């Protein structure tokens, strides 16, 4: 009996070993769809760098093909394509899905909200990542930070904004919660795919737009049409996202899952510092290379109205929506805690050294 049991155990061990070896040798080929065109750096660089890291770290066992928007032709269809399994992954921005699910909105950024370091701390140490998975669970996808732009500029306008009256009736491309704030102030708000922004502004389809910051904006040429460039308020920490089909993820061996998670985290932060460098470099050349750009800050009357509209909308949206309220409350509490240190470590340092 002991000999028989011993043989069975040895046999089971051999089978388990063969299964492990087969799993390790198997190659997984995934597809990733992005909202961005093939040359839109640094947004497109984040998924490209992630895919390269994954392939190298896995010794080719996990290969991810990145399809830019010009290939799949659905810049704002990323969530649906990943959810439906046409793609294993996506790279986009969570606030694009607010029309489908309002709970996805806060995970990109919120007006007058956290800065990028504060928001990253919230994601990874303040419960934000867990709340994001909770919000996306119904869609059967996982969502992870995908690269931050830092504080974005407030937009390009054809005319100078001196009062609230100057805003009324303008047509503006501005997504997310900020779009709802602007709509409350009397603007006609729209969202336009990145590849169509310049032509929309040039043809007068829109009167103003916000995109990112000088590193990305100036190469788009917006200043040639709308020279008034306003400082930011609406997107202090715009985090892009990696979407992952839950079933695809669960099929990966544990080591490949960890490789994927690590590569997403590294490429996201790398995009943040890449974009920071692009904007710092562009800003240093604005006066000499682009003297026609007129840097402006919204008047106090306008800023006060934006804050008031934002506060009213937050209450309105959270009412009767427990998950959204949970996310917004979590962000508000973490911002309050982190802002004390941000003021001490960054604001007071800059105040005394500029």
Automatic annotation (TrEMBL):
Q: Which Pfam families match?
A: DctP
Q: Which InterPro entries match?
A: DctP_fam, SBP_TakP-like, TRAP_DctP_sf
List this protein's GO terms for biological process.
Answer: transmembrane transport
Q: Name one GO cellular component term.
A: tripartite ATP-independent periplasmic transporter complex
Residues in a coiled coil are: none
- Family annotation (Gene3D superfamilies): Bacterial extracellular solute-binding protein, family 7, Periplasmic binding protein-like II
PANTHER family cross-referenced by the UniProt entry: EXTRACYTOPLASMIC SOLUTE RECEPTOR PROTEIN, PTHR33376
Provide the protein name: TRAP transporter, substrate binding protein, DctP family
């Amino acid at each position: 009996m002991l000999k028989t049991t011993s043989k069975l155990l040895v046999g089971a061990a051999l089978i388990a070993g063969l299964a492990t070896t087969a799993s390790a040798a198997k190659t997984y080929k995934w597809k990733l769809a992005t909202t961005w065109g093939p040359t839109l750096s640094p947004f497109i660089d984040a998924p490209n760098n992630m895919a390269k890291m994954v392939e190298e770290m896995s010794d080719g066992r996990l290969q991810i093909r990145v399809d830019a928007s010009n290939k799949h032709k659905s810049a704002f269809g990323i969530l649906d394509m990943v959810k439906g399994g046409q793609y294993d992954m996506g790279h986009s921005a969570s606030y694009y899905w607010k029309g489908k699910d309002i709970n996805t909105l806060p995970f990109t950024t919120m007006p007058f909200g956290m800065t990028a370091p504060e928001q990253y701390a919230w994601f990874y140490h303040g419960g934000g990542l867990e709340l994001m998975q909770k919000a996306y669970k119904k869609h059967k996808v996982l969502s992870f930070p995908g690269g931050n732009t830092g504080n974005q500029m407030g937009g390009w306008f054809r005319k100078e904004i001196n009062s609230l009256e100057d805003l009324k009736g303008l047509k503006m491309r501005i997504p997310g919660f900020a779009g709802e704030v602007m709509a409350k102030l009397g603007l006609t708000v729209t969202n336009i795919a990145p590849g169509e922004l310049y032509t929309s502004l040039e043809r007068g389809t829109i009167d103003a737009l916000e995109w990112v910051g000088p590193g990305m904006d100036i190469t788009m040429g917006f200043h040639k049409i709308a020279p008034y460039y306003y400082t930011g308020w609406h997107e202090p920490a715009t985090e892009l996202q990696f979407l992952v089909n839950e079933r695809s993820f669960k099929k990966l061996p544990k080591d490949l899952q960890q490789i994927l998670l690590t590569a997403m985290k590294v490429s996201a932060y790398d995009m943040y510092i890449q974009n920071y460098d692009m904007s710092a470099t562009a800003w240093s050349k604005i006066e000499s290379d682009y003297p026609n750009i007129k840097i402006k800050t919204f008047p106090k009357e306008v800023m006060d109205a934006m804050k008031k509209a934002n506060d009213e909308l937050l209450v309105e949206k959270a009412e009767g929506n427990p998950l959204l309220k949970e996310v917004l409350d979590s962000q508000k509490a973490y911002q309050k805690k982190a802002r004390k240190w941000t003021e001490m470590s960054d604001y007071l340092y800059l105040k005394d050294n500029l």
